Write a sequence for this structure.
């Protein structure tokens, strides 16, 4: 009995408890993914056209991605304060939108709703920053799986909140916006004091592999369960009692991972602490041997003079060749035969500040690739409600939930796949990024060509590809540019989504949609016998029907994803030596 207080203290400070609570926060934090469900509600209530809805979508994307403040504050404030700021913003922003749509407040100008949606969705950046920074610091050698699972639950939150909304059975559609404002805030307030770095790199256990396997199993079961519920609702139709029962089972599945920290603390024997380091032992010894500035200069020069084939040699042979080259450079520098350049800033794989990372071509190549691919995926997500309606589907919530599920699987699978290729083969992690961009390109092209069941194929492949980016890119950035400024780096990278959405959704997709909607409206007036064409005002709600509404947009975005794939392969070529050193394996 005397050990109980110690066990409870160990439980509260256990890194797996932090990870599980972070999963719970993320499972309701991705409110931006429900925009496809709430945008038709706002469109009907406010009488907006598609371009105005697209502007609201861009405001949502900007709020979801501009996290400079959150990234900066996480270095100076406790994590619970970061989470509390997110709660306040979420309540104020989406609370105001609900008041307007529910006619409790009078109609407000479009720019006011843009600001409200921006503020409400920006609260999500505080949730993401606090959970990701805390868990990546607690699991420094498992960044791919950690980022993948956390971002996966954020992507799945759209489907989870949709099921909870159906379970509660609100009397009107506007209540979904109310739930977005209140639901996540309650969960975050309940858990905000648990989310923090707890020195997790000192809590390594042999059972960690089994814990990750259990986590992946829960993720797969959860995704399969949600997909099964969607199919059941779409094909059969179920009564409210069964909907409520399915919702309760969903909540139990989400809570299930709490078993991991409970077993780790209360059901396992104490084990001596093992420190989990960022670099392998060999790399630590190499780093420790270059404490003096002169030696660092020589090591920097070695990177420039080293033949490319050295990186593909086995670890022992590579070390031998590098040591020989370093000895030659030391002798030549001592004799004045060569002029050794002074080391300028950190090398890839070391800790960068945000400004230092912005000076690197690799950072911008990854960022532009993400703008093109993630911007295309987000355009589909934001316009999914209108895409479904244009094809004649009345229940858009099913497809919004479906893309959330496959977004989740993409993030979890992207983290696992990218971790596998770097652990087993020391391939650069951006290889996985190039693969998923090809998958996205195929899915978008399939819609453009009007293939059978096009909405299902595009929803699945776009969700998988888009989701995988958010497991791969943050982990890649942390490996190439370090963990010291990971919060700032992550939030800058997140700007890629609204940048791409601004280009593809607001400037291209909405313009093409409204063009065909006006064309169909004019044609409809002519067919009805009206000889006078009445111009449609800006406030008139236009509706486009048929796959033509988005097929041209999808064809353009498919080509853009191929360009993104080429940029990712350039990053792979440039960073292959960094990954060979970090993970100490050859590509043979």
């Amino acid at each position: 009995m005397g050990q109980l207080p110690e066990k409870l203290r160990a439980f509260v400070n256990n890194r797996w408890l932090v990870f599980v609570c972070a999963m719970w926060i993320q499972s309701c934090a991705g409110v931006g993914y429900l925009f496809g469900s709430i945008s038709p509600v706002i469109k009907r209530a406010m009488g907006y056209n598609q371009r105005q809805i697209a502007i609201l979508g861009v405001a949502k994307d900007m709020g979801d991605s501009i996290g400079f403040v959150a990234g900066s504050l996480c270095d100076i404030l406790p994590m619970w304060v970061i989470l509390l700021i997110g709660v306040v913003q979420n309540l104020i922003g989406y609370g105001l939108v609900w008041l307007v749509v529910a006619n409790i407040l009078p109609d407000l100008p479009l720019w006011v709703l843009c600001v409200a949606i921006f503020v409400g969705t920006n609260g999500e950046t505080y949730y993401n920053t606090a959970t990701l920074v805390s868990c990546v610091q607690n699991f420094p050698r498992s960044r791919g799986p950690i980022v993948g699972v956390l971002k996966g639950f954020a992507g799945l939150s759209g489907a989870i909140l949709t099921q909870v909304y159906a379970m509660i059975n609100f009397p009107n559609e506007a209540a979904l916006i109310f739930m977005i404002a209140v639901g996540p805030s309650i969960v975050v307030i309940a858990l905000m004091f648990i989310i923090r770095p707890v020195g997790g790199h000192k809590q390594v256990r042999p059972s960690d592999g089994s814990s990750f396997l259990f986590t992946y199993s829960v993720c797969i079961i959860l995704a399969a369960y949600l997909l099964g519920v969607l199919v059941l609702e779409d094909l059969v139709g179920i009564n409210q009692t069964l909907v409520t029962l399915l919702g309760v089972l969903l909540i139990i599945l989400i809570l299930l991972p709490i078993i991991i920290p409970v077993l780790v603390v209360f059901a396992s024997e104490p084990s001596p602490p093992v420190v989990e380091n960022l670099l392998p032992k060999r790399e630590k010894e190499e780093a420790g041997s270059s404490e003096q500035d002169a030696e660092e200069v020589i090591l920097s020069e070695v990177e420039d003079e080293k033949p490319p084939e050295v990186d593909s040699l086995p670890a022992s042979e590579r070390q031998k060749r590098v040591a020989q080259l370093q000895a030659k450079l030391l002798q030549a520098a001592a004799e004045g035969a060569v002029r050794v350049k002074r080391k300028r800033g950190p090398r890839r794989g070391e800790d960068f500040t945000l400004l230092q990372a912005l000076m690197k071509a690799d950072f911008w190549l990854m960022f532009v690739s993400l703008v093109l691919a993630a911007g295309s995926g987000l355009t589909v997500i934001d316009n999914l409600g209108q895409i479904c309606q244009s094809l004649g589907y009345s229940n858009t919530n099913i497809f919004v939930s479906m893309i959330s599920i496959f977004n989740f699987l993409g993030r979890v699978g992207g983290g696992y796949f990218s971790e596998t290729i770097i652990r087993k083969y020391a391939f650069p992690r951006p290889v996985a990024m190039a693969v998923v961009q090809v998958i996205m390109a195929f899915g978008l092209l399939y819609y453009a060509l009007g293939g059978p069941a096009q909405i299902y194929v595009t929803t699945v492949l776009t969700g998988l590809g888009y989701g995988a980016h958010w497991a791969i890119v943050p982990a890649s950035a942390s490996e190439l540019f370090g963990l010291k400024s990971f919060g700032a780096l992550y939030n800058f990278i997140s700007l890629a989504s609204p940048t791409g959405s601004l280009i593809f959704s607001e400037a291209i997709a909405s313009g093409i949609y409204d063009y065909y909607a006006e064309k169909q409206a004019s044609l409809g007036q002519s067919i009805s016998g009206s000889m006078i064409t009445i111009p449609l005002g800006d406030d008139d709600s236009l509706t486009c029907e048929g796959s033509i509404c988005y097929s041209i947009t999808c064809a353009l975005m498919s080509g853009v994803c191929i360009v993104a794939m080429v940029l990712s392969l350039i990053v792979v070529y440039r960073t292959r030596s960094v990954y060979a050193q970090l993970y100490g394996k050859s590509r043979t």
